[in-house]
Design goal:
about 180 residues; alpha/beta; Rossmann fold; 5 helices; 6 strands; Heptose_bisP_phosphatase; metal-binding; HAD-like_sf
Length: about 180
């Protein structure tokens, strides 16, 4: 089975400015390049899991998200970095919307991933996947930013960090 580094998009790959869907509005989080490189070098799949409620809210379209993800992937490729897959959820009441596990379990099935040997990096309590006990969620690292990280599961397979650099140091020990 494969191991994966799952990454939220807004707040992790790029600065979360609220509903980013245009290349010109995208500001990369600089440390993410080193995080992705390390995962690539150590044989981890790198998979993006992102809620995109702006589609449901009529702020932008699925085509806008696909175009931005294509542009982001091209930028990463030019840096010698590889993203294995991108998953997003537009709907508000869907099994795929984080913290529900739909995207995670779809990625697991598609890429034959051992979730217990994988990691999730996010910046919101919704990046802690719900589980009914039928699967063990990946170790989750949350980065303090714009969102309240109060959640009953923090401390149970979840670690909170102040910034990307701290996550990078922790991943160096674990990947």
């Amino acid at each position: 089975m494969n191991k994966a580094l799952f990454l939220d998009r807004d707040g992790i790959l790029n600065l979360d400015k609220g509903y980013v869907y245009k290349w010109d509005d995208l500001v990369w989080m600089e440390e993410i390049f080193e995080i992705i490189k390390m995962a690539n070098d150590r044989g981890y799949k790198v998979i993006i899991l992102t809620n995109q409620s702006g589609i449901h809210r009529g702020m932008y379209t699925r085509e806008d998200v696909h175009l931005l993800h294509k542009q982001m992937e091209e930028h990463l490729t030019k840096k010698g970095l590889h993203i294995d897959d991108w998953f997003y959820c537009a709907e508000m009441d869907s099994i795929d919307r984080k913290p529900r596990p739909g995207m995670l379990l779809s990625a697991q099935k598609k890429h034959n991933i051992d979730l217990e040997k994988s990691f999730m990096v996010g910046d919101k309590a919704t990046d802690i996947f719900e589980t009914d006990g039928s699967f063990k969620r990946p170790m989750t690292f949350l980065i303090r930013g714009n969102y309240d990280l109060t959640h009953p599961d923090i401390g149970s397979g979840v670690k909170v960090f102040e910034n990307h650099a701290e996550v990078l140091e922790e991943l160096k020990k674990r990947l």
